[in-house]
From TrEMBL, chain B:
Gene3D superfamilies: Quinoprotein alcohol dehydrogenase-like superfamily (2.140.10.10). Residues 1-22 form the signal peptide. The keyword Glycoprotein does not apply. Its cofactor is pyrroloquinoline quinone; Ca(2+). The active site is at D319 (proton acceptor). InterPro entries: PQQ_b-propeller_rpt, PQQ_MeOH/EtOH_DH, PQQ_rpt_dom, Quinoprotein_ADH-like_sf, Quinoprotein_DH_CS. Belongs to the bacterial PQQ dehydrogenase family. This is PQQ-dependent dehydrogenase, methanol/ethanol family. One of its GO terms (molecular function) is oxidoreductase activity, acting on CH-OH group of donors. Disulfide bonds join C125-C126. Ca(2+) binds at E193, N277, D319. The lineage of its organism: Bacteria, Pseudomonadati, Pseudomonadota, Alphaproteobacteria, Hyphomicrobiales.
Amino acid sequence: MAVAVLAALTLAAPARAESDKVAADKAVSSQDGKFFDANGEPTYKIGPDGKVDWYTYSGFQRYSAECLRCHGPDGMGSSYAPALANSLKTLSYGDFLSTVANGRKNLEGGQEKVMPTLGLDKNVMCFIDDIYIYLKARSDDALGRGRPPGKEPKSKAWEEGVNACMGPPS
Amino acid sequence: MNRLVTTVLSVSALALNTAAFANESVLKNSADPKQWVIQAGNYDNNRYSKLDQINSGNVAKMVPSWSFSTGVLRGHEGSPLVVGDVMYVHTPFPNIVYALDLNNDGKILWKYEPKQDPNVVPVMCCDTVNRGLAYADGKIFLHQADTTVVALNAQTGKVEWSVANGDPKKGETNTATVLPVKDKLIVGISGGEFGVQCHVTAYDIKSGKKIWRAYSVGPDDQILFDPEKTTALGKPVGADSSLKTWQGDQWKTGGGCTWGWYSYDPDLNLVYYGSGNPSTWNPKQRPGDNKWSMTLFARDPDTGMAKWAYQMTPHDEWDYDGVNEVPLVNQKIDGKDRKLLVHFDRNGFGYTLDRVSGELLVAEKYDPTVNWATKVDMDRNSPTFGRPMVNAKFSTEQNGEDVNSKGICPAALGSKDQQPAAFSPKTGLFYVPTNHVCMDYEPFRVSYTPGQPYVGATLAMYPAPGGTHMGNFIAWDATKGKIVWTDQEQFSVWSGALATAGDIVFYGTLEGYLKAVDAKTGKLLYKYKTPSGIIGNVMTYQHKGKQYVAVLSGVGGWAGIGLAAGLTDPNAGLGAVGGYAALSNYTSLGGVLTVFALPD
C-alpha cells in the first residue's frame, strides 16, 4: 500500500510541474505579432484552430533548416543529439541563448557530442527567438509534429528586423 | 548467360595484362577472392565475390562466428578490409583503425587513433560517418573527418605520410573512402551544406605530394576541362562551360562535393565518380544550370583532365546529390557488347551510359513513385536531350521561395543514397538498396558565412504514398532499365549490398538484420539480428579454407536523424501524426563488427 501511494505521488509530481510550465509559458502580452509570457520572455500563441503566430512558424522553418540535421525532425532528437522538444521542458531562455551562441562539448562515453558555436551564424542568430518560441511550443505539447497547420501573416516589424540582421535581400 | 560470364572473364584477363599500368597491388589482390582490399571489392565497383562456399543451398545454416566492438557509438558506414591474414577495421570519428590478426582470434595487432579537433564534428553534415580504408603497396590509406589523408604502414600502423586535403574551419570535411590508382591516391571532399567549392585531388602514393586537383565548378583551368576535347553527350563542352551556368561569383561557394565512390577502368585509364548538390538548397538564389554539380565525370588519373561529363540534374531544386557509386560492367545493349557504367542516382533514375564516350543509353525510374520529372529526354535531336523533364508542380524553383512544394518523390535523401549496389555477372542483374520516401520542400533565403551551414530549405519527409514501408531492395536490369524483383523493407535500406558466386545477395537493414536473399528471385534465405542498425556494407573473405561474411552494425548517418523518432505524414491532418514506425523502437547505438560462417 505504502509503495503504491509513493508511486502515485512520484507520478503526479512531474505532471503538475509540467502543467505549471505550460501555464507559465502562456502569452500575456504582445508587440507587433510577437508574444511574451508573464516573465517578459518570448512565447507562442496558438489559436483554437491550430493556427500559430508568425514567430512560431518562422521558428519551425529555421529549426528545420539549421538544427534538424543533428536534432532531428520536429525537435525529436537523432541517434546522437538530444530531443530539444524534451530539453526545453527544463532549459531556461537564458541557458538556451548561451548554449546556441557558445556551443557545448561532451566527449565522454564513446560519443563525441559537439554542439557548434553558432553566435556568428546569421541564419541562426537572426531567428534565435523564433527558434526558441517554436521549440517552447513543442516542449509544452502545444504544437504537434510536422508543419504547423496554419499561420498568422508576418509583421512589418519582423521583416525589418530580419533585413537589418541579415542585410537587405539580394 | 554463359556468354556474359565469358565476356566478363575475358575483360578481367585483359585488365590483368595491363597491370603494370594500373596499381599492380590493387589489381593483383582484388582479383584474389580470398581478400577484400578496397571498399568496393575491386576497381569496377561490382561488389561481387567469386567465393561460393556459402551459397543458396546452405546459407540458411550460416551462424555468427565472431564479433568485435569498435568502442565507438556513432554511425558505422563502409566495411572492413582483409589483406592476407589481417583484417583492418575503421570507425566513425575519431576514425580509429584496428589491425586484427585472423590467425589469432582477431587479436589487435595495432591500433591507430588520430588526434582531431572535435570542432570538426558539428561541421559534418549528418553524423560523423566514414566509409572506410583502402589498401595498396603495403599501406593502409585513411581519409579522416578533418580531411587529413594518412598512409599507414600496414604491418605496424606507423604513419608513413600525411597531408591536409582541406580546412574544416571553412566547412571542408570528409566521410568518403579513397581509391589507389597507379602511383596516385584519388581523394574527394565534403561540404556541400557549407558552400565549399569541392574537388577531387590526386596525391602521390609514395610521398603524399599533391599531383593535381580538379574542382567540380569554376573556370576551365580549375575544373580541368579542355573546351575542345572534353565532351558532354558527344559534343565538346566549349569554353567556360561551368562559369556560364552560374550568376557572378556564386560558383565560388558552389558545392558540387565529391563524397561518393570512385571506380576505375584500367584499359581506358579513366576514373569515374559523381558530384553533389550545388549550394544552397534554395534554387532561387543561384540561377542557371550550376554546372558541373550533379554530374558524372570520366577523368584521366594521370592528369585529372576530364574526358567527358554528364549533368544529370541541372539546377538542382531538391538536393539530389549525384555522388552515388558508378559500377562498370560489360553487357549487351541491342545485341551489341558495350562497355557500360551504371549509376543509381539520388534523383530516382537509373542511368546506363557508354563509359568510353559518355553516351546516354538508358535512363529509367528505379522506384515507380519518382515524380519530380516525367522522364529524361532521350531524343538525340531534341534541344533538351539528356535533361530531365521537370514536373512544374514539384519544381521548388517554379513554385518559388517561401512556398511549400508538397508530395515530391523521392525525398532529398534520394531513391538511393551512397549505400552501394552490387552486380552479379552470373545473373546480369544489379541489386540495389533503396529509399521509398517522399517530401515537402520549402526553400528560403539564406546568407553565406564561411564555415557555417548554408542550407536554405525546410523539409518534411514521409513514406511514399500507397504504403507504410520506407525501403525496397530491388533487382535491376540496367540494359533495359527495368525492375526484375522487389523486396519491401519497413525502413530505408541503408546498407551496401554484396553479390556472390553462391547465387546469393547480402544486405543489412536499419533494424539490424543481416539478410541473404536468392539472387534470381529475391526470396529471403537467411536473417540474423545484429546488435545495432546496419548502415555498413557487407563484404566477404576466405581464411584457412573457410568463407566468412562480415558487416559493421552501428546505426546513424542520415537514417539515424530522419528515422530515429519516426516519420510523420504532414498531409494526414491533425492528430494523425506519429503513425509510422520509429527506428528507436527497434535498435540502439553501438559499433560492432559481426563475422558469419557456416558451422564446422
